[in-house]
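=== Structure Prediction Worksheet ===
Name of assembly: unnamed complex
Input type: mixed (protein and possibly other molecules)
Chain count: two
Listed entries:
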Amino acid sequence: MNRCKMMVGIVSLFSIGLLAGHVWGAEAFPTKPFELVQPFASGGSTDVMCRTIVARATPFLDNQPCVVVTKAGGGTVIGSKYVLDGYHNDGYTLFSSSTSSLMVAPVVNKANFSWRDFVGINQTMLGSDALFVRADGPFTGLEKFIEYAKQNPGKIKYSSTGTGTSPHLGAAGLAAVAGISIKQIPTKGDAEALTALLGGHVMAASMNPLSALPHVAAGRLRCVAQYGGERDKLVQPNVPTCKEQGVDVELDLWRWIVVPKGVPPERVKFLRAAFMKIFQDKETLVALEKIQCPASYRPGEDYEQVMMKSEKAVMPLIKAAGL
Amino acid sequence: MELLANLYQGFQICLSPINLLYCFVGVLLGTVIGVLPGIGPGATIALLLPTTFRVSPVAAIIMLAGIYYGAMYGGSTTSILVNIPGEAASVVTCIDGYKMARKGRAGPALGIAAFGSFIAGTLSIVGLMVLAVPLSNIALKFGFPEYFAIMCLGLSIVSYLGRGSIFKSLLMAALGVSLSFVGMDVVAAKPRFDFGLLVLGDGVGLIPLLMGLFGIAEVFTNIEEKTQAREILLTRIKGLLPTVRDWKDSWGAITRGSLLGFSLGILPGGGAVVSSFVSYAVEKKISNHPEKFGTGVIEGVAGPEAANNAATGGGFIPLFVLGIPSNVAMALLLGALMIHGLQPGPLLLQQHPDIFWGTVGSMYIGNAMLLLLNLPLIGLWVKLLKVPYKILFPMVLLFCLIGAYSENNNAFDMLVMLFFGLVGYLLRKYGYELAPLVLAFVLGRQMEQAFRQSLILSDGSFWVFFTRPISAVAMALAAFLLVSALIPAFRKKREKIEAEAG
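=== Predicted Assembly ===
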């Protein structure tokens, strides 16, 4: 009988120990792998960037690996909603956000969230979309392009990577500010927009420079302007911005790693410190340059400031694009 | 001569033991995922992309490419044996392939699919090697109106797919086009027909639709039929390889399928799927026994299987020469090139000839490996017919569920698949063909987009489709096909009515 009681006692003690262990375990962070959610199709530039970042991240995350999880669809909203669903605010789920997913998509899809529902870990990239024309055509610069458009309203058709995508906003903003009428032909993405220009079916293409640049190098295409506030120093350092050419359009493409609001502050702190170190890792930076990703680190503390500035710049463009 | 020197260099690269190993792993995996319904090359390449980080770029591309064309080999197997397409490009193979298997001729069907794939695959690599640069420039000539016209031509082929009533086929095509409209409208950026469901924002997925209509519906149908038909079929399996007669019947189909597949593969947007349908229609149109199509004729297997393999070779042309991916699998390969610091585009061939020629070389080797891998397997596959339904179908169900989920990691896609399983079961029960629905679904969305893009381009004038030479020819051909298919249908009906009246 006594023995039995003792057993019960030991078992209870063990259980308390286990329970306590569990509570302490919850405070230890991290104890399991991280996931970095990205909302675009696999193999795209965001996916490739995320995979490059996590490839060497493990040692900086207390030896926990970080895996890239694709949650594509719904114009990035499916990915954002997945992260915001209330089950993913333990700090283990990170989201690779961008101008499209935090600024444009919530408006276009009438989704009830904004950048304010997230907390910034760090900025990963700062780039710019741009306007491309044929190298054998008459447009040697933005000025010539605008001049022609003023003389021939509605005649310039340009391919974009889809209505409501950032290249569309850039071109629509450019048209609104410069007071010209150009027509958008939306396509399914970079490949189709590029093909239309290469084949001479449209007079310009508004798109991300990544897939167009090799054709610039081959002498088939020319870039007349980039929409960003400053020149993209990695990708096209020699192409002037709209602002430099006298048209007041500024559309920066940033990418930020964010977590949903509600992640405990000490975990946010851990992640910010970890990703700062990841972005100081030489090999990671070289790898990012190799995939032509204009990496640009900013600390999580700058999140609100960057977002407010971006919101101010993007909202008028969304209006100009008629969305 | 330069060509031979390049090819020699390519073989040198791909014959190194490590690259040979990656090639073998690629084609083996490709065959397996091709056989498994629902799990497609796209999802597999996405999954394996990170594993190629540490290997040389050429080995990575060799393996990933192997998965892609290997899947085209394997896709026919499930079509022929269990009437469930392993890949979207093997939908038409079900029509005659499964009927052949029911007649006890599963071996020759599998054999001709493997040989046809090998011949077409090899021809398309030769094409890729010799014609890559000139053809990529021709592909650029295709603007929005040309795409619309080509897709019209593709859709008119629906009238050759069905066995039964042409009106039922057209009805299914209309349903397919309607389903393709679900989701975000690219032109206006407004969601349509999505019932307010975010998950339908990108439309109904092809894989869930396909696996539902074919895989799940097949399971349902067989539960109803109980298992008797199956046992009878097992008693007589005639020969494992195609006979001389089979070869005579199919060599024309294989040649035509190769040409068709290769040319359509160069154009973006589901080249492999569309070319298999087109090949089937062409074979039926020129055959002197078109009425036998759908009852298990070998041309109906040889043509489409050759076409979908040739399309893979064609698909590499825009990727390597222009850096423009023609389908999801190619987009992933493009991503793989970028991860390895190679910029896909017009300079890739000049700056990294080793990648292109190494891959071309590996495709020759890979195709030979696939043939050697698949021929001995035929005996094994045919034995699969002996697996009792109560074991086979739960497995099919499981793989379909995994396949539907794995594409986007989205549980809703499994519900979509089950829904279409029910739809497919009912449609089949009432004698509606599913192949026209699939073709129309694949083409519908792209066709609508090309239509609206063309009209923006022409400032609203419809003449744009008839004043440009390529699109005018395609439109005329489409009209001719549709009319020539409809007239006999009308005539037969009238004769029947007259006969009944008389």
